[in-house]
Amino acid sequence: MCSAGVRQLTVLAELFKAALDRYRPESVAVLGVAGGNGLEQVDCAVTKRIVAVDINHQYLDEVQRRFSTLSGLELQCLDLAEREVSLAPVALVHAALIFEHVGFGVALENALSLVAPGGKFSVVLQLPSEEEQGVASTKHKSMLTLKENFVLIDIGEFQRLLEQKGFQVIEQETRPLPAGKALWLGVFAKAGDACASASEHDRS
Length: 204
What we know:
35% of the residues lie in helices and 27% in strands. By secondary structure, the protein is an alpha/beta fold. It has a single domain (2-203), classed as Rossmann fold (3-Layer(aba) Sandwich). It has a seven-stranded mixed β-sheet with strand order 3-2-1-4-5-7-6, sandwiched between helices. β2, α2 and β3 form a beta-alpha-beta unit. 31% of the residues are buried. Mean pLDDT is 86; it is low at 133-147.
């Protein structure tokens, strides 16, 4: 289990780095930052503002201890699922494995509110494994709003929900994990921005 956990942390850091390298944001918010896995990937010459958000103050203390030399670091102890947040938007919002815990509703609205005009919303979700058939993705709204339990999220439904809120997926990839698991990375942009990004990608 330990090696599997280490592998998952490694892949999560790699996916965060992929988003940073692809979009080179001037500012980034990491939702559910925990102990700061992946923050070592941030290039402070490019990203001047790093907002680390977590509900657990002890996690943020650990982030401060590990990354005190990271310029532009802001620590925010917030429960994204409980109340509306008021933070200056950023160019990239990164949320890895948090919606499985907090559901949608207020948490998703808060996340989207942090995306600056022209910015991107990077999401990592866990895919179900063949070995864990008892834990399946759900299409029931009552299940999606659970906060205490880890509930897998249907990728297609998630994309449709984001489309209803004006965000379209512009990039996605899947990374395998041990025991048949996998992580899915989806990067979203507001509808008009998504079209512009697609045009730029076609020209490159």
